């Protein structure tokens, strides 16, 4: 059936694009920070004339537009993104012929999403698998974020043009200039590639914990924050709302930076640079990406090797001599040991022994091995050994990511459980308080409410 046979009155009454009236919650340009601009960096955010303490909330913002991930349309509400688990009868689309399989937690969410976007595309399932196009359409109807960078001249627009042409064609009878709409939709998809945020949700299985992206969103104010591979600002999500909090004290005039994904702690330099050039079209020049490592920063994942002759712990692979003692490094020996480690996977004591002979004691790889050992000891009811290994892992994580980081909070959460299992009441209560304090400092108590409930139950049980 030709597409025009599926057009409806909505395609005649489409609202014209209007200037954006989106406002943040007023916390960005407060006493803490201000917007700055240079020709090379564009807009970015810096601290005002006083030090910002760690854990300070500097931005809380609702999304300008957002779109549920296509793989989750049957599992989460398309209107508010809430999980539909536990809802006996989710609300379907009002059109019985709809093939999108959208579900909603309430009729309010169904109505909101219907009039915002779905009424125009319900009959065209081909659009369902293109969330960027749906977001671009919402941007077109709700306002023009012209101040956001698109890097359109550096992108291949073919992937955008086909969907934009299709969407503009749907409204050829209701708008004056379909070609202008098509061009706007192309530009907005390019803007989303450079400025979109993935809304994260925590998941827990029997053996592991992780974060999944449930939706893509555009936050007009949060998009002003630049990237650093060693960021001083944490971005987290409470429902659809983004919160930005400082991870450590930030001095006056210092840029406030989030991570766009890559971190020096867990991704090598060449991979970070490739990712950022490919995804965001810039070469990162942050402190962690300098040719000469900044000694004030924790060693990056590139700097894991230990000099066998002195205490230097920032050796990079294939560096011919140690910068501190000038000893020639026997890389053949080191790489031979590194290659042998894989043969002992599961024998974590042996793995730790080999790793400790070539890696320094602040290496995240060692922390992961201590984490595995803690799990092995815990399953074998060796509580003291499990606690020791967990505390070693925590110490490394605090060195690499910082003492006030989500990664440190996760390790502290594990430690609480181990102390509780061991029946150590005083230590359990001590670490529950420390963990809850850090969760509240970073805003994790709002994002990870199940963790807080578990810590509360742990404290009452012990």
From TrEMBL:
GO molecular function, one term: histone deacetylase binding
One GO process term, biological-process aspect: methylation
SUPFAM superfamilies in UniProt: SET domain, TPR-like
InterPro entries assigned: SET-MYND_domain_protein (IPR052097), SET_dom (IPR001214), SET_dom_sf (IPR046341), TPR-like_helical_dom_sf (IPR011990)
Domain SET, first and last residues per copy: 25-261
Keywords from the UniProt entry: Methyltransferase, S-adenosyl-L-methionine, Transferase
Any Pfam family the entry gives: SET
Keyword Transferase set for record: yes
Cell wall biogenesis/degradation as UniProt keyword: no
Family annotation (Gene3D superfamilies): 1.10.220.160, 6.10.140.2220, SET domain, Tetratricopeptide repeat domain
PROSITE patterns per UniProt: SET (PS50280)
PANTHER family the UniProt entry points to: SET AND MYND DOMAIN-CONTAINING PROTEIN 4
Name of this chain's protein: SET domain-containing protein
């Amino acid at each position: 059936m030709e597409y025009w046979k599926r057009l409806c009155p909505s395609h005649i009454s489409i609202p014209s694009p209007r200037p954006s009236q989106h406002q943040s919650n007023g916390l960005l340009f407060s006493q803490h920070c201000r917007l700055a601009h240079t020709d090379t960096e564009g807009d970015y955010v810096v601290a005002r004339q006083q030090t910002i303490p760690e854990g300070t909330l500097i931005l809380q913002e609702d999304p300008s537009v957002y779109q549920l991930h296509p793989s989750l349309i049957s599992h989460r509400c398309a209107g508010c993104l809430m999980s539909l688990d536990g809802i006996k009868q989710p609300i379907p689309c009002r059109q019985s012929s709809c093939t999108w399989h959208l579900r909603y937690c309430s009729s309010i969410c169904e109505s909101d999403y219907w009039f915002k976007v779905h009424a125009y595309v319900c009959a065209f399932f081909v659009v369902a698998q293109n969330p960027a196009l749906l977001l671009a359409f919402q941007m077109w109807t709700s306002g023009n974020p012209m101040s956001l960078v698109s890097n359109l001249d550096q992108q291949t627009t073919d992937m955008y043009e086909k969907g934009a042409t299709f969407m503009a064609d749907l409204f050829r009878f209701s708008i004056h200039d379909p070609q202008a709409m098509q061009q706007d939709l192309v530009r907005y998809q390019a803007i989303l590639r450079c400025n979109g945020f993935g809304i994260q949700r925590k998941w827990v299985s029997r053996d592991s914990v992780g974060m999944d992206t449930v939706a893509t969103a555009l936050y007009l104010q949060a998009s002003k924050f630049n990237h650093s591979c060693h960021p001083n600002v944490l971005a987290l999500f409470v429902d659809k709302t983004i919160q930005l909090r400082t991870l450590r004290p930030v001095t006056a005039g210092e840029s406030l930076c989030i991570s766009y994904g890559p971190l020096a702690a867990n991704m090598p330099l060449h991979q970070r640079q490739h990712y950022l050039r490919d995804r965001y079209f810039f070469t990162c020049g942050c402190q962690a990406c300098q040719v000469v490592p900044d000694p004030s920063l924790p060693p990056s994942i590139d700097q894991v090797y230990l000099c066998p002759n002195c205490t230097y712990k920032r050796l990079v692979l294939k560096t011919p001599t140690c910068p501190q003692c000038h000893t020639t490094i026997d890389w053949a020996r080191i790489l031979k040991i590194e290659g042998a480690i894989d043969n002992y996977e599961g024998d974590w004591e042996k793995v730790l022994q080999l790793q400790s002979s070539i890696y320094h004691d602040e290496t995240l790889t060692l922390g992961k091995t201590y984490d595995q050992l803690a799990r092995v000891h815990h399953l074998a009811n060796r509580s003291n050994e499990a606690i020791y290994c967990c505390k070693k892992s925590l110490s490394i994580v605090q060195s690499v990511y910082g003492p006030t980081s989500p990664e440190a909070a996760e390790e502290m959460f594990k430690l609480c459980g181990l102390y509780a299992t061991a029946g150590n009441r005083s230590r359990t209560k001590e670490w529950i308080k420390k963990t809850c304090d850090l969760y509240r400092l970073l805003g994790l108590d709002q994002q990870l409410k199940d963790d807080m409930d578990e810590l509360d139950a742990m404290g009452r049980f012990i």
